[in-house]
Sequence to fold (67 residues):
Amino acid sequence: MLRDVLSNTGPSIWPIISLLIMLVAFTAVLVWTYAGRKNRFENESNLPLELDDEQEQDMKSTRGLSS
Fold:
């Protein structure tokens, strides 16, 4: 049945189908972005500012030597 529908519609249906797929994908990304947990984005934005354990130990050891 689906094969008959697609074969009788011709090539003019494919742009409409692809437009609908892209519209659904774009809407899904928007919903995922705005409905997401805000804490996750805040935590990820602070990652470059956080120190690793190794960096903290290095800072403590250099502070101890300079004092």
User: Anything to note?
Assistant: DSSP finds four helices and no strands in the chain. Helices lie at 2-9, 14-34, 38-45, 53-66. Residues 11 and 17 are 11 Å apart (CA to CA).
